[in-house]
Amino acid sequence: MRDLPPILEIPTRGAIDAVVWVPGSKSITNRALLVAALAAGDSELSGGLDSDDTQAMIEGLTALGCKITLAADVWRVGGRRGRLERSAAAIHARGSGTTARFLTAAAALANGTVVIDGNARMRARPIADLVDALRALGVRVDVLGENGCPPVRVHGGTLPGGRAEIDARSSSQYVSAVLLAAPYARADVLLEFIEGSLVSRPYVDLTLDVMRAFGAEADWSGASALRVTAGRGYQGRAYAIEPDASAAVYPFCAAAISGGRARVAGIPASSIQADMKVLDVLEAMGCSVLRDSDSTQVCGPLGRLRGVDVDMNDMPDAALAIAVTAVFAGGPTRLRNIANLRIKETDRLLALETELRKLGAGATTTADSLMIEPGRLHGAQIDTYDDHRMAMSFALAGLRVPGVAIRNPACVGKTWPDYFDMLERL
Q1: Which of 317, 383, 386, 387 is catalytic?
Q2: What is the spatial distance between Cα 220 and Cα 222, in angstroms, rounded to a whole number?
Q3: Is 280 marked active-site?
């Protein structure tokens, strides 16, 4: 990652025409790292994302006794056969939600007490719903932070298993955390959702896909429960990590905003990554989409984009880029069912409302939605709230609006350290 100034102005340009390679999927990388660390035998991971979030996971797993060797083309992970070491110091998850939540569940497999902590924002992100589910499965966990937030202390040594209810209405990461550790429970794990509700289900399907690729037996048990078979642990293997669909959203939206074309290579049409559903939203806004076996292309419309009314619950991370794209539409846009944006790296709904208004657009939030009214746009310095997706999304506005500048652009290092290099090359 090159050095970035405290404030970075985005140069405007005309219609883009670009082929883009995006980095490896953060979601898959952190799932594959944990699964490989718990497996019997060694694994080789190719295509992994090297970013702040994945480094947090690697450091956490290393502190739990895992040997991970990083090379340019492949990462080698020594499997621990479901047995982790106690860490003498608190594991610092930085601002990585997947690291904090996944390692909280995995720490039940350690041979002693493990404390999971994070940065100031992580200490304000709830984890109590995960803790309640782990307790129901027989794990001793203490919440040390305020208001049900980290740090947490896990008394490792056993994961009895059994049946548990989990409140998955605010984050699917709680569900994925339990699933990833569950193959090493003493008894089968049946996980049922309170009120039958699960936010961002595609991320749970992604977790199941990674688990099964390494040999676990895990699947849906009806529409609102999951079952994991005990005693069917992971087996080390070579595993290729797909490019990140969440990252691909930005060049796709750049094509929509500029009226140009962007082709993202390497993500198969069969990918189950949640943010691939953004293609349906862009089509509804008037873009054309071409999918083939190993790439996807988006072309912006000849005329103005159309406003849309869309449920973004399955792809909340993409909501920010779509919100910025919507200010260039010919009519209003409503993004619905995204209450969980309020407990991300920042309160993203509030942040979107504030920064969209800075650009001259109308923006109004409810508890779980955002209404966007296109207006007379103008340049502004955008506050990013140390949130990588705020920085990446609002930089797209600068492709067409002169004078858009991003404060603290280096926060993109959380998931895409070279993002602004990519944007310059479009």
Answers
A1: 317
A2: 6
A3: no
